[in-house]
């Protein structure tokens, strides 16, 4: 019996931490992108030009070290995802990063 596959687009993302004057890449990994829809905050963000997404990555030492001060950059498109919250899965195998895109960045 085949296992059902999770929905969402796969991207290659660079995890970046803000240095003294620029973003510095710490590591890269494959991520599954899921665009959120529905809630009042999500719709308000879209009206302001921002999308809320969940980026899921396999848990590991590098991913566990990431904080909300970091960002994730799509290696193919250059789009930056500002991390807003980090939620580990119940079994510890995955980490979900709730992010905003296309809005004003916290650090230039």
Word description of this protein:
This protein is mostly beta strands. It has a single domain (9-101), classed as Bacteriophage SPP1 head-tail adaptor protein (Thrombin, subunit H). The protein contains 2 helices and 6 strands; from the N terminus they run E-E-H-E-H-E-E-E. A hairpin with a 5-residue loop joins strand 4 and strand 5. It is globular and about 35 Å long. 15% of the residues are buried. The model is unreliable at 104-108 (pLDDT under 50).
Summarize the structure.
With 108 residues, the protein is mainly beta. 11% of the residues lie in helices and 48% in strands. The protein has one domain: Bacteriophage SPP1 head-tail adaptor protein (Thrombin, subunit H, Beta Barrel).
What is the CATH superfamily label? Bacteriophage SPP1 head-tail adaptor protein
Strand order of the largest sheet: 1-2-3-6-5-4
**Low confidence ranges:** 104-108
Report the count of strand segments.
Answer: 6
Averaged pLDDT, please? 83
Structural class: mainly beta
Radius of gyration: 14 Å
The CATH architecture is: Beta Barrel
How many separate domains? 1
Largest sheet report: 6 strands, antiparallel, barrel
User: What fraction strand?
Assistant: over 45%
Order of helices and strands: EEHEHEEE
Distance between the termini: 49 Å
Helix content: 10-25%
Shape: globular
- Provide the CATH top-level class: Mainly Beta
Number of helices: 2
Q: Under CATH, the topology is which?
A: Thrombin, subunit H
């Amino acid at each position: 019996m085949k296992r059902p596959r999770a929905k969402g687009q796969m991207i290659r993302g660079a995890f970046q931490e803000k240095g003294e004057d620029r973003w510095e890449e710490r590591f890269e990994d494959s991520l599954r992108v899921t665009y959120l829809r529905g809630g009042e905050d999500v719709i308000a963000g879209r009206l302001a030009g921002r999308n809320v997404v969940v980026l899921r990555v396999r848990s590991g030492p590098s991913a566990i070290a990431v904080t909300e001060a970091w960002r994730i950059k799509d290696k193919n498109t250059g789009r930056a995802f500002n991390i807003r919250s980090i939620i580990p899965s119940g079994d510890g195998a995955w980490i979900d990063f709730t992010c905003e895109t296309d809005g004003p960045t916290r650090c230039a």
